[in-house]
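User: Teach me something about this protein's shape.
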Amino acid sequence: GGQVIFTTAPEDVPGRAEMEEQRALLEELLEDVSSCSDWTSQLKEGKIRRERLVDQDELYFIRRRHESGHHYFIVNLGDERFDDWVPLSVHFDEALIMDPMSGDVGRAGMRGSLEREVRLQLESGEAWILRTFHTAHDHPAPEWPYINISGPAYALSGKWDITFIEGGPELPPDHATESLTSWTEYSEAAERFAGTARYSIEFDAPSSTGRWLLDLGKVHSSARVRLNGREIATLIGPTFRTLLEDVRPGKNFLEVEVTNVAANRIRDLDRRQPDWQENFERPIINSIRKEPGKYGGEAVNYAKAPLMPSGLIGPVRLFELE
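Assistant: First, the predicted structure itself:
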C-alpha cells in the first residue's frame, strides 16, 4: 500500500531468471508510471511530509517505525562538529537520545509545537539513535547533557609520566616528557611495542567550577580515563572527549591508559622473524599470507611498512562548561 515516487523510472529488471517474462511485466507496469522531476510537488499531492534532515549535508540517517513512535539512526559524516536544531517529519511529543558507543540515554532537547525540533550535537563521525514517542510519558532518563562550552581552552601542561603496563614483546622503559609525541619515538623497544601505556599528570583546576570537558586530542588508538582514582570513560573514537564532573579546586590527578594496534609488533616480527606466522595454525593468517603483499613478495609481509603512531599525542585540553 506504499506510494512510490519515481524521479527516474526503472530501465530493466534485475537478474536473468525468467528475464523475458519479467521484462514484459515491467513494460506493462510502466504504462501507468510517469517520472517526475518536481518530486516535491508529488510529495505534497501524496500528503507525505518531507524529511528536512536531508537538508543537512553532513547528516545521514535511517528511520524505522516502532510500536509507539520512530527510531532515527543519525550519523555525522562531515568534517566538523554538528550542533543545531533540526526538525523531524514525524509527529512526536518526546524523544530520547541513545548513544550506542557509551550506552548513555537522555531526554533530547525539544522546541516548537506545530513542527517539533530536536537539538543534535554530534562530533565528526559520531552517531546517535533518536527514539521518538507519539505521546509523552514518565521516563526515568535524565536530560541529555549537551556540551555548552563557556570559555577558552585550558591546556594541561607539565610533566607526563608514562609507564608501559601490558603488552610485548617486552615492556619499554618508563618515560617522562612535557611534550607529547608518539611513543614510537621514545626507544627501540617502544617502536616495536604493542600494548598499553599509562599516562599520568597532576594539574591544578583552572577555576573552582566542577564541570569540564576533557579533550585528549589525537589518540592512537583507544583510551581509558581516570580522574583522582575514579573511572570516567573508555574512549575508542572517532573523537576522544569526555565529561569531567568532579574536578577538584586545586590539585587533580589524571590518568589515561592508551592501547595501540598491533601493526608495529607485526612489522617488527616480519623484520626479525620472517617465518613467524608459520608457527600459527590459523587458516585466516595462512590464507592472508598467500595473497599478494603490499610491501613486496608473494606473501603478505610488513617489514617495510611505516611505523604507526601510538599513544597519547594530544594536545590535551580542558574546556569549562556552562
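Now, about its shape. Helices lie at 19-30, 39-45, 188-191, 263-272, 283-289. The chain has a mean pLDDT of 88. If you'd like, I can walk through any region in more detail.
User: That's plenty for now, thanks!
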